[in-house]
Specification:
- The complex is a heterodimer of chains A (259) and B (336).
- In chain A, 57% of the residues lie in helices and 8% in strands.
- By secondary structure, chain A is mainly alpha-helical.
- Chain A has 2 domains: 154 residues, no CATH class; 88 residues, no CATH class.
- Chain A has a 3-stranded antiparallel beta sheet, with no helix packed on it. Chain A has a two-stranded antiparallel sheet with strand order 4-5.
- The two termini of chain A are 45 Å apart.
- Chain B is mainly α.
- Chain B folds into 2 domains: 77 residues; 243 residues, no CATH class.
- Chain B is 78% helix and 0% strand.
- Chain B is built from 13 helices and no strands.
- The longest helix of chain B has 34 residues.
- Chain B is elongated, with a radius of gyration of 28 Å.
- The mean pLDDT of chain B is 86.
- Classes of the chains: A mainly alpha (259), B mainly alpha (336).
- The interface between A and B is large, with 59 and 63 residues.
Chain lengths: 259, 336
């Protein structure tokens, strides 16, 4: 089942559990493909230059071999890398993308070959137009090759890690004096709210002053409703600092001490 | 309920690390887990990790840990629930003489349709040239076929033909170009088979026009000597590529099949790869023969020799596709 808003594919296991996979968007997929294209062209040029350097470039055997090798590189690059690197080419590795079976099962060789062979249709009539459109309109951002092979491309980029140092900015966290309230905060705050608070702190400098104040007020309000700290712990504290303290309480690694 | 996240992480982290390490070992080894105890342990770790994920998702806001655990569970899930075998030892000869023919026969109706589309094109091409000889310019895309066949034969027989010391590169060009065309014929199955049928029909039109043109000019022997050595493999290869495209199209349309689209595609995918692999093998041989033999004519190579080779090749191919893998098929039918 795919969650359209967040581009997530939620897999429900027969055991009754669920886990989600982050689907890669058309832009990141295009960038990964561009890197792969550059690498393929580079390999082809290297072969041509190597033959030219040995003076064999225009001999019949060299021309024949070159055609065969270029053909194998063009069609084999994606197949070889995706098979041996478990769904990743060099471009996908850079962009932290991975081809997976759409039921989150192990990728089979026939799936890898099918999605790479059908690329020839996705590239029509030029510049990946059919594949790009299919990817754009598909629920799971699948090009035609993916649809036929039953594969998806997932993004494995981890969100920027926000450690306590970044959240607090080196300041003292008065909430740590109330471990039972911190525990309640961890229980009640949803992952989505924690993620939102994290994004707000990371992107604070990108926001206009008024927008920043409003955003932190809204996030702090939601956090206060989850767990209210006593007045002595929040006295004179801005909304932004409240959010930062909460994040520290939520994300602090085991064993970290207060400053 | 996770009241103390720190304690929860301290307790569970070693099990996650063990699962991670086991997954790494499985990915590296071709055979998977070695013994039953290891399999049991793996299953236990997977269930423990999924239970931890459920608890984290419900009761904790630690996003990093949740993402890490989701990735771990997804990898373990793929290993446990995947039903297809890990790739075993490559057996190219067995694949060629048993797997390919069985796959071909399994989809004989698609091959028959592929052949019918090509034959319809052949009839159309012949008929077009019969009623309008000037249509040659429109029907035939190759310049060297536009002239008078008798003149071409006379010219080629003076020199004995050949491609002027460019056999290897010409052969490579033929192989790569024909394989590329075959892949397109297969991929056009995605257009519900319309693209595949159109390409097969067009291919038939060209073939029909050429055959009619040469026979009308009384050059049937030359034509057979020229086309049969490589065409005995090349034409069936294109037909098999068309067969693969039509198998794909049928899976998309899903006539009289209760499986879902995804199930249908999943079922035919290994067959598509086998068929297109067979096409590639046939076209590699056809490319070599076309470059090194087909282009040479009398007096360098006798026509009867070339025609005989073509007939022998075609017969061998028919025997392979018709009878190959019969024993394996019988065993399969008999069941375990």
């Amino acid at each position: 089942m795919s969650d359209l808003r967040s581009h997530k594919l939620v897999i429900r296991t027969p055991e009754g559990y669920a886990f989600s996979l982050q689907l890669a968007g058309p832009v990141s997929r295009f960038l990964a493909w561009s890197i792969d294209l550059l690498i393929t062209v580079f390999i082809m040029l290297a072969i041509i230059f190597a033959l030219a350097a040995t003076g064999l470039l225009f001999s019949d055997i060299a021309l024949g071999l070159m055609q065969l090798v270029l053909f194998v590189v063009w069609f084999g690059y994606g197949i070889i890398f995706e098979w041996f690197w478990h769904g990743r080419t060099l471009g996908k590795r850079v962009l932290k993308l991975r081809v997976m079976d759409e039921q989150a099962l192990r990728l089979s060789f026939s799936q890898v070959v099918t999605r790479n062979l059908l690329r020839i249709v996705d590239c029509l009539p030029g510049f990946y137009l059919i594949g790009g459109l299919a990817c754009f309109f598909s629920r799971r951002c699948q090009r035609l090759g993916d649809l036929a092979a039953g594969t998806i491309v997932v993004s494995q980029a981890r969100p920027p890690e926000l450690n306590a140092e970044l959240a607090l900015g080196g300041k003292y966290n008065s909430f740590r004096e109330h471990p039972h309230l911190e525990a309640r905060l961890r229980q009640r705050v949803s992952p989505e709210l924690a993620g939102l608070a994290m994004e707000a702190v990371i992107r604070r400098d990108e926001l206009a002053p008024q927008a920043r104040v409003e955003l932190f007020a809204a996030v702090a309000g939601a956090l206060r409703r989850a767990a209210a700290f006593p007045p002595e712990a929040v006295e004179g504290m801005s909304d932004e600092q409240y959010v930062r303290n909460c994040l520290d309480s939520l994300l602090r690694k085991p064993g970290e001490q207060n400053k | 309920m996770i009241i103390d996240l720190k304690r929860f992480l301290e307790e569970e982290q070693p099990f996650w690390s063990e699962l991670d390490e086991m997954l790494g070992r499985i990915a590296m080894s071709k055979a998977g887990l070695a013994d039953l105890d290891a399999v049991k342990r793996f299953h236990y770790l997977y269930e423990r990790a999924t239970a931890d994920l459920a608890r984290l998702t419900t009761f904790s806001s630690d996003r990093q840990t949740r993402l890490h655990l989701e990735t771990l569970v997804a990898r373990a899930y793929a290993e446990i629930h995947s039903t297809h075998d890990r790739p075993g030892r490559l057996r190219p000869l067995h694949w060629l003489i048993s797997d390919l023919p069985r796959t071909f026969r399994r989809h004989w109706a698609a091959f028959a349709l592929s052949l019918a589309a090509t034959l319809a094109g052949v009839i159309f091409g012949s008929f077009a040239l019969a009623i309008d000889p000037d249509a040659k310019d429109v029907v035939l895309p190759f310049g060297h076929l536009l002239g008078d066949p008798a003149e071409r034969v006379k010219k080629e027989e003076q020199t004995g033909g050949g491609v002027g010391n460019q056999e290897v590169s010409f052969s490579a060009f033929l192989m790569t170009n024909n394989i590329k065309v075959s892949i397109i014929v297969l991929a056009m199955g995605l257009t519900f088979g319309i693209g595949t049928i159109v390409m097969l029909f067009y291919n038939g039109v060209i073939l029909g026009a050429v055959v009619f043109d040469y026979i009308r000019a009384g050059q049937g022997k030359f034509l057979a000597g020229w086309l049969l050595p490589h065409g005995s493999f090349e034409i069936p290869a294109i037909l098999i590529a068309g067969q693969a495209g039509l198998v794909l199209a049928r899976a998309l349309i899903g006539w009289s099949d209760r499986n879902t689209l995804k199930q249908r595609l999943r079922l035919i995918m290994p067959d598509l790869i086998t068929l297109i692999g067979g096409v590639a093998v046939l076209l590699v041989w056809a490319g070599i023969v076309e470059s090194f033999l087909s282009q040479y004519h009398e007096p360098k190579v006798e026509y009867w020799q070339k025609i005989s080779l073509g007939i022998v090749q075609l017969s061998l191919l028919a025997v392979l596709l018709g009878l190959g893998g019969r024993r394996a098929e019988k065993i399969e039918r008999a069941g375990p």
